[in-house]
Give the backbone structure.
Amino acid sequence: MTFKMGIDLGGTKTEVLILDAARQPLYRQRCATPAQDYVAILELVAAEFEQARSRFGSDMTLGIGIPGAISPRSGLLRNSNTQSLNGHALQQDLVSRIGCQPRIENDANCFALSEALGGVAQGYRVVFGVIIGTGTGGGLVVDGKLLNGPHRITGEWGHNPLPWRQQADGISTCYCGKRACIETFLSGPGLARNFARRYRRKLDSAGIVAAAEQGDGACIEMLERYYDQMARALAQVINIIDPDAIVLGGGMSNIDSIYRQVPRRLRDYVFSDFVETPILQAQRGDSSGVFGAALLWD
């Protein structure tokens, strides 16, 4: 029996999963990611892989979800907000340590694959997966297959400018060097920064949501703006791809009101006389990415 191992290499935590031939979990573990130390990250992945092989046997595939993507031209990792990974030949360095070829994909791609194959979007033909957490990413799955272009950036909607921008939105500089990226509005840190700039108060995204639920007027107003910004950003995706379903993951996807408030606002921006695109919450939660990493070998 061939086992499938997935590793989700997050900025703060690393999750490990092993699936059997029926895609059922046999083993799961989480540990802290040594995000500032590239060599320590390599050693962590190698140690987890060797430990798994010693327990379950050598017939083991490995898929890894990472922030960023490996350039098909240089072979070096780029665009990662875990910045210690950038500029390194991650694939080659791992092969030299573990002696086999892992499949490595962007973490949002892994998330989209997971939800399309066995999660909330199973049965939909075209699925756009969205991560809204400390960053904002996306992935596209068609007929159960991950779609990736020649630059390996398919789904990177978070680094396009927020469409139909309004004066009240404000403008922030993104870590990528551009200004007004969708990520600077829809990520958790982006919401907190924009709230602090507008209201001269410091609350994190969870604090803003909690205060809004208690009737805080400024927080309610900020979330209303957030819903509209998300509707504009997702409407642009619908206008270009017209997916059968959009799935949200990441910490911000746990805001229940998103699923009531955003769909009704899509009508203002989608280039159609009706909008039926379902906006779904991920079924596998923050473990969806590691399932997708393991399924890279399906």
Remarks:
- The longest helix spans residues 217-241.
- The first strand starts at residue 3 and ends at 9.
- The chain has nine helices and twelve strands.
